[in-house]
Every structure is written in C-alpha cells, then in structure tokens.
Amino acid sequence: MKRYMQITNVRGREVLDSRGNPTVEAEIVLTDTMTGERYAGRASVPSGASTGRFEAVELRDGETRYFGLGVKKAVNNVNTKIKDAVTGRNGLNQVEIDRILMETDGTDNKGSLGANATLAVSMAVARAAACSLHIPLYQYLGGAYTRLMPVPMMNILNGGRHAANTVDFQEFMIMPVQAESFSDGLRICAEIYHFLKKLLEEKGLSTGIGDEGGFAPDLPDARAVLDLIVAAVEKSNYFPGQDIKIALDAASSELYNEKTGMYHFPGESALKGGEVVRDTAEMIAYYEELISDYPILSIEDGLAEDDWDGWKLLTDRLGEKVQLVGDDLFVTNTKRLDAGIKLHVANAILVKVNQIGTVSEAMEAIETAQKNGYKTVISHRSGETEDTFIADLAVAVNAGQIKTGAPCRGERVAKYNRLVRIEEELGTVAAYKEPFNKI
Ligand code: PGA
Ligand code: ZN
User: Fold this and answer.
1) Would you state the pLDDT for residue 2?
2) Measured distance CA(7)–CA(411) in Å, rounded
3) In the prediction, which pLDDT does 439 show?
4) Which one is the CATH code of 151-429: 3.30.160.40, 1.20.1250.20, 3.40.30.10, 3.20.20.120?
5) Known catalytic residue: 424?
6) What is the chain's Cα-based Rg?
7) Span 129-141, mean pLDDT?
8) Integer Cα distance of 140 and 136 in angstroms
9) Which of 208, 219, 236, 360 has its CB 3.0 to 4.6 Å from that of 98, i.e. a possible disulfide?
10) Reported confidence tier of residue 307, pLDDT bands at 50, 70, 90
11) pLDDT confidence of residue 369
C-alpha cells in the first residue's frame, strides 16, 4: 500500500552562511497518516559569488539590514505561500512537491518565490522523507544501485572572486584518481594541502585562505600556481599526472569584458606591470599550453557563459584530451544542457542545486548528462552552510566527482566527513574509480 507522509508543518528562518551573509533554512514536518508518527527534515541553502547570469534568482531583500542581503522575503514566502501550497501533500512524492514549488512560483527562474526559498523546502522535504523511511538520504535519493563514491576535486588554491589575491583563475584543484577509496583520497589531498602550506611558508608567501578554504597567496599567473602544486604533490611522495590530476575552474565569465570582447587578467596585469588580456583563441591556446606542461585533466568555465561559438571551438580542440565542465554555461539547467549537447559543447556539467532551485530539477539535469555521456560534478558554492546535502546527492546519483573546497573550513570539511561516513556505511559495496577513463 502506498505510504503517505503528510506535510504537516513548514517553517523557514534566516540563518548565516560561511561568508557571514544571511541565507534560508527550512524545516519540514511529515506525519505518517497510518501511525501518526512525526518526522522532521532541515536544510539550508548555499550562495555563490561568481554567479552565472542564467542562474535561478536568489531573492534578497535589498533593504539596509545585512547591506541589502537579508532574506526575510524569501523566508516569508516559505512561511506563507509555500506552506499553504505544500501542506497536506505527500512528502514521499518529491517530484510532485517540486512541481508544486515551480507552479506556485510561476516564473522560469524562480524569480517570484526565490530559488533560495524553493530549494530550502525541496531539500528539507527530501531529508524528512528519508528520515520517515528510516534510510539514509543518499539511499532515498538514489535507490538500490547507489554505490559510487565521488572522487574529490579538492580546491587547494583560491583566486578570482573567492580571494583578495592576484590569482586570476578562481580555483586550482587536485584529484586523487588512483586512491584506493574515498577516505584514502581524502587523506592524500589533505597531506598535499599541508605540504603546500609548508612550501608557501618557505617562500614567504601568505598562507591565508580564500572563501573555499584554499590558500590565497599573491602569485603572478597560473603557471606559478601550478608549479607550486606540482611541487607539493611531489613533496608528498605522489606522482603528478598519475596519482594526482589537476583541475582548474577558470570562472572566465568573471574575466570576460563584454565591451572589449576580451578576457582581462587583473592580477597578472598588476604583478607583471602591463595589461594582460586574451581573446577567445588566445584563451584556448593558453589552455592548450597549460595542458601540455601540467597534468591538467579538467577545466571548468574555460570560456564565458554565453560564448557558445568559443565553447564549440574549445570543445573541438580539447574535448578529447580533458574534461570540459560547464558551470555558468549550463547553470544546472536541463534546457541549457540540452542546447550544449546538441552543439557538442563541453563534456561535463557542474551541478549546483541552488542554480536551479529544486532537487528534482537538479536530478533531471544529472540524468540528462549521464544519458548523453556527459560527466557530472556535484558542487558546493563559495558561500556554504554546514548542510551536507550535496555529499548524499553525489553518492545517490553515482556522480563520480564532487567539488567541495579545501580540507579546511568547517562547512567544506562537513561534506567530506559526511562522505567518509557514507563510505563506511556502504562497506564492501562502495566503489571508487578514476572518472576520466573515457577521455
Ligand atoms: P561560486 O563559485 O559558488 O562563487 O559561484 C563556485 C564555482 O564557480 O564553481
Ligand atoms: Zn565554477
């Protein structure tokens, strides 16, 4: 008989994210209509800094409190419109709940309720539903075939909008592709992170960190960063290119200037004493050089979010050699991903649940990617909370990769530690494998 876990309470509140900005948290109560037992689920929403132009709307109050960043309106939407719309519904029917959220919002981009309001409720419903069935969230979301632990794409050096240093590319990440397990990979990455810190100290460079926990020293360009990372890997007794592969998030929409049609490198310009700009062809050539000189296996947002022609060129040139991840390009939006698939643009998608605003729409994008041979990387935001939802999601959908920052800062470490627990729970069923064998 179909079970009915009735939504009997919905409550939103304003809490803080890891940058000290407000964000939405929601709590859902489900009541088992057969037994009267009650189950609760709580979730909070992350927030980006280098947000893509095509992301769902994050509703902010625009008032003086919190410098305009308050989320009282979104919280109010949770406590009134959303509560009215979902109360009485079956919390076990995630797709239906998400559809109600979309219909109650009524826009294409969650601009009316706010994606921060809809997502908080969507995630909290999933968590309460898992709780009501007495199974872990990853198993509830993924079902019987959930088994693949993600390879961490661990950000150890921050730049761009995530730090106040001169590094122009936003993220430099290491991937322990040959590790025996997720936990083993986590250890390897943490060791390299510590060796990197020592190297920075030896060179008199700053060991202060950026928003995602990676170090944020002033360095002249990507090569200087990559040299340091390779040295840290070697110092840790691992082989760059074999044990460890490098991933970049250029976040190039932030470097792109619409007026000039060029990519501007302010940090590189400042340290080299002359304006450094690159056009699309030069960007592609730059990546080509970096790939041939360093063990780079993944490049995210190599070109700007609307440069489809450039992305096509980039994919034609590098798509057989490296993973090309669309973040601002796809914004976890199945329509944009479909367009990319048709054009043969990129070969992987970054999945950020708050870019789209409901759990089932994010899962739809993942399913579309996987059906079409695109890789999936589940991702945090630079503004995070202690919520570990994405760790469960990564395992649930057998995503294969997760990007959730450095082994530093509680909101990042919380996701890694959740994955350690999941791996232990899966026991001998847990799998861990190099995600690039096809590339
Ligand atoms: P954001 O950055 O969360 O600041 O948007 C993350 C990313 O670009 O991948
Ligand atoms: Zn990105």
Assistant:
1) 85
2) 29
3) 44
4) 3.20.20.120
5) no
6) 21
7) 98
8) 6
9) 360
10) very high
11) 98
Q: List the chain domain ranges.
A: 5-134, 151-429
CB 377 within 8 A of CB 399: yes
Residue at token pair 């929403």: 45
- Running DSSP on this structure, what letter comes out for residue 358? S
CA of 317 to the centre of ligand 2 (A): 21
Indicate which ligand has the atom closest to the C-alpha of 46: 1
Strands 171-176 and 154-158: antiparallel
> Using a 6 Å cutoff on CB, does residue 382 contact ligand 1?
yes
- For tokens 């995210």, name the residue: 300
DSSP code per residue over 184-219:
HHHHHHHHHHHHHHHHHHHTT----B-TTS-B----
Per-residue model confidence as pLDDT tens digits over 339-374: 999 999 999 999 999 999 999 999 999 999 999 999
* Cα dihedral 310/331/302/158 (nearest 10): 160
Q: Is the pLDDT of residue 285 over 70?
A: yes
Question: Which CATH number is 5-134 given?
Answer: 3.30.390.10
Distance 349 CA to ligand 1 centre (A): 13
Give the pair of three-digit tokens for residue 96. Answer: 């239906």
Look up the pTM and report it: 0.98
| pLDDT value for 98 | 98
The catalytic position among 27, 171, 212, 384 is: 212
Catalytic-role residue among 83, 110, 245, 352: 352
Q: What angle do CA 329, 347, 139 make, to 5 degrees?
A: 90
What's the pLDDT at 172? 98
Residues pairing with 382 in the sheet: none
- How many angstroms separate the alpha carbon of residue 217 from the centre of ligand 2? 20
What is the C-alpha separation between 435 and 418, in angstroms, rounded?
21
Helix (H, G, I), strand (E, B) or coil at 376: strand
**With a 6 A CB cut-off, is 55 part of the ligand 1 pocket?**
no
CB-side neighbour CA atoms (13 Å) of 237: 2
391 with 353: CB under 8 angstroms? no
Ligand 1 centroid distance, CA of 257 (Å): 18
Residue nearest to atom 1 of ligand 1 (CA): 48
384 is catalytic: no
Would you state the structure tokens that stand for residue 318, as one six-digit string?
């590098």
